C-alpha cells in the first residue's frame, strides 16, 4: 500500500468510518429478508422465523486508556457502566434486553481479585436491568484491558423505534438532565492530575463528597428503562428515538438526518442539574457546552406529537421538551436565551 492510499484514522470521524463499512458491506451482502435493519441505528433488527417479536442486537467495546482510566475508575463501575451503555441502545429502540455476552482481554497486571470486582459490577447491572449474563470469552492482552459486550433483546413490530421516524411539528424531548457525566469526568481528571503532581504511587483518597452526583453520572450511569416501562404501560410510541451517548448536538444531528428533517433546539429548556452548574462555575466554564457537547449521559432523546407529550407528562415527570422538528430545509438551529437563533453546520459534527 502506497502512502497516497493510506488515510490515517485520526483524520476521519467515527461516522465516516461507519459509512465506509456500510458501503463495503452493502455491495457484497446477500439480500436477507430476515434482516429488518442493519448498520446505522442503535441496534440491529432481525426477524426470526415463527416469532412475533423482532430480535435486537447491539454491542459496546471499552479499551483501557481510551474509554476508561483505571487510575480513578473502580473495576466494578466499569462493569456496570459497560452494561448500561449497551442496554441503553436497546432501550433507544423501545426494546427490552434479554441476555448478554461479555468478552474480555486481560493483561498480566489484572489480578483474579480485580476480575472479581469487574464481574460484580456486571452482575449488579444484570439484576437492575433483568438481563442475565449467559456467556462470552476470555483471552490475553499484550497491552491494556479490553472489554466488549453484546446485548440481545426484543421489540414489537408495532412499537419499535428507529432514528428515522421524526415528523415535522413533533416535539423533541429528553429524559433526565445533561452534562452531568462530563462534569464528573472533569472532577476525576482534576483529582488524577493532583495525584500525579504530588507523588503518583502513594496512597491517595480524593475528596469527592461534594461531587457525588456528577461523579456517579460519569462512573455508574443509569440506562432509562423507567421511560420504556411507562411508554409500554400507556401505549405511547415515540416517532423516533436515540440515546445520548456521544452528546446532545451529535445525537440530535443523527436523529434528524436519519429522519430527513430539521430541528430547532431551545437552549433555555435544556435540563442541567444544579450540581453540574456548580462544577462549571468552579472551572469557570460555560455549562451549556457541558450539556450540548459533553456526552455519556445515556439519557433518551425522542420525538412525540404534541398530544402524546400531554399524555406522557401525566404519567412520567422526568422529561422535558427541548425542541421542535422542522422541515429539512430549516437545518439544525438553536434559539438562545436572548432570543437569537444559531444555525449549526452539521458537517462539523460528523
Characterise this structure.
With 350 residues, this protein is of the alpha+beta class. The chain has 2 domains: 3-156, 60s Ribosomal Protein L30, Chain: A (2-Layer Sandwich); 171-349, Alpha-Beta Complex (Phosphoribosyl-aminoimidazole Synthetase, Chain A, domain 2), CATH 3.90.650.10. Helix content is 35%, strand content 23%. The chain contains 10 helices and 13 strands. A 7-stranded mixed beta sheet has the order 8-10-7-11-9-12-13, with helices on both faces. The longest helix has 18 residues, at 112-129. It is globular.
What is the gist of this entry?
With 350 residues, the chain is α+β, with helices and mostly antiparallel strands. The protein has helices spanning 14-28, 75-91, 112-129, 180-197, 212-219, 225-234, 248-259, 274-282, 287-293, 306-313; strands spanning 35-37, 44-47, 53-63, 96-106, 133-140, 146-156, 171-175, 240-243, 262-266, 300-304, 319-326, 332-335, 341-343. It has 2 domains: 3-156, 2-Layer Sandwich (60s Ribosomal Protein L30, Chain: A); 171-349, Phosphoribosyl-aminoimidazole Synthetase, Chain A, domain 2, CATH 3.90.650.
